[in-house]
UniProtKB/TrEMBL annotation:
<keyword id="KW-0813">Transport</keyword>
<keyword id="KW-1003">Cell membrane</keyword>
<dbReference type="InterPro" id="IPR038665">
    <property type="entry name" value="Voltage-dep_anion_channel_sf"/>
</dbReference>
<feature type="transmembrane region" description="Helical">
    <location>
        <begin position="65"/>
        <end position="89"/>
    </location>
</feature>
<feature type="transmembrane region" description="Helical">
    <location>
        <begin position="95"/>
        <end position="118"/>
    </location>
</feature>
<keyword id="KW-1133">Transmembrane helix</keyword>
<keyword id="KW-0472">Membrane</keyword>
<feature type="transmembrane region" description="Helical">
    <location>
        <begin position="169"/>
        <end position="188"/>
    </location>
</feature>
<dbReference type="Pfam" id="PF03595">
    <property type="entry name" value="SLAC1"/>
</dbReference>
<dbReference type="InterPro" id="IPR051629">
    <property type="entry name" value="Sulfite_efflux_TDT"/>
</dbReference>
<feature type="transmembrane region" description="Helical">
    <location>
        <begin position="306"/>
        <end position="326"/>
    </location>
</feature>
<feature type="transmembrane region" description="Helical">
    <location>
        <begin position="239"/>
        <end position="268"/>
    </location>
</feature>
<feature type="transmembrane region" description="Helical">
    <location>
        <begin position="200"/>
        <end position="219"/>
    </location>
</feature>
<keyword id="KW-0812">Transmembrane</keyword>
<comment type="similarity">
    <text>Belongs to the tellurite-resistance/dicarboxylate transporter (TDT) family.</text>
</comment>
<feature type="transmembrane region" description="Helical">
    <location>
        <begin position="280"/>
        <end position="300"/>
    </location>
</feature>
<dbReference type="InterPro" id="IPR004695">
    <property type="entry name" value="SLAC1/Mae1/Ssu1/TehA"/>
</dbReference>
Length: 348
């Protein structure tokens, strides 16, 4: 997720240069390799230890991390749309559409199943046990809606583009209000039981993710809707496209502002925790802040606004620097064999 977001930001930065484009391609390829290797290892893990699958699916504290799979896949689809479709043409857009369908179906199934799992299983019985990790499966559907808008923009068939855009609006409606509900519960948990332990304090950044991409998704959907309706011979439909774009931009700005509130909370939480140990949770710095940076850049493009464009560029630079720091820490942890811990015991 973090590597994919870094590649997207390098491509998306308003103040472009050739070396940034080349670096974004390098990270895209690197991310594809990472995704294939980790997916293969995950499949191998559950093939060698099939009894792990059920405990993983039924544990409300572990199962939400499955939402990272469609999110990571979505970053690959985005870069495929940005890099491969312009180079390879119509067949590449068809492949992007097929990939998006798989990603969207997987994201919706995880969102519905894991959200119901939180209600039906007895292992979480107090407010104190609710964590920001519960947002991960919901975020996967929000991200699928934004990626759907990007895919619709490059589809040659107007009918398919319209259907993809409508489906993406539905995906956004299924997930964004649900994320707001979970955020309200999580805020109550923080107010009553205070901040998480120092070891997992980075999780305070997770609420920025669905808000950042929720803002990005709805604005991109408005942009694509306007593009689809603009050439319609019926002037009323063309005007409705402009109205939808204006409404979605306003809604995106409001969600961006709400995300800013949670970003301040996250920064204050990190500051209050002082020094805390490096672990895999540090990757939680990269993706939430990355999608917030992407949303900021899109606002700068749509208004247009130099302020948002510069702010988005600054945030993107911070994300890329964080990616470098966390990547080096990960390599060091792998080398010293101190980083990875099995999330669930192997049943006997």
């Amino acid at each position: 997720m973090g590597t994919g977001m870094a590649s997207i930001l390098l491509y998306f930065i308003p103040f472009q240069a050739k070396w940034l484009y080349c670096l974004s391609i390098v990270l895209f390829v690197l991310n594809a390799i990472f995704f294939c290797i980790i997916s293969a290892l995950t499949v191998l893990r559950y093939c060698l230890f099939p009894k792990l699958w059920r405990p993983t699916l039924c544990d409300p504290m572990v199962a939400p991390f499955l939402g990272t799979i469609p999110i990571a896949f979505a970053t690959l689809i985005e870069m495929w749309v940005f890099i491969c479709v312009p180079l390879w043409g119509e067949w590449a857009s068809t492949v992007a559409f097929a990939f998006w369908v798989v990603d969207a179906v997987g994201a919706v199934l995880l969102t519905m199943y894991l959200s119901f799992l939180l209600m039906s299983k007895s292992s979480i019985r107090s407010l104190e046990m609710v964590t920001a990790v519960q947002l991960l499966p919901i975020a996967s559907t929000i991200i699928a809606s934004g990626v759907g808008a990007e895919v619709a923009e490059v589809l040659p068939s107007r009918e398919r583009a319209t259907a993809t855009t409508l489906a993406s609006f539905v995906l956004w409606g299924m997930s964004m209000p649900l994320a707001a509900i979970v955020l309200a519960i999580y805020y109550q948990r923080l107010a009553v039981h205070k901040l998480p332990a120092r070891e997992v304090i980075v999780s305070c950044f997770l609420p920025v993710g669905p808000l950042g991409f929720g803002s990005y998704s709805i604005m991109y959907l408005g942009k694509v809707t306007h593009a689809i309706f603009a050439n319609n011979p019926d002037p009323s439909i063309a005007i409705s496209g402009k109205c939808i774009q204006a409404v979605t931009l306003m809604l995106g700005l409001i969600i961006w502002g709400f995300g800013l509130t949670w970003l301040v909370f996250a920064l204050a939480s990190i500051y209050s925790a002082a020094l805390f140990p490096f672990n895999m949770g540090w990757w939680g710095f990269t993706f939430p802040l990355g999608v917030y940076a992407a949303s900021t850049i899109l606002i700068g493009n749509e208004l247009p606004s130099v302020f948002f464009s510069v702010l988005g560029t600054v945030l993107s630079a911070i994300v890329i620097l964080l990616w470098v720091v966390v990547s080096l820490g990960t390599v060091r942890g792998i080398w010293k064999e101190t980083l990875f811990v099995s999330p669930s015991p192997i049943p006997k």
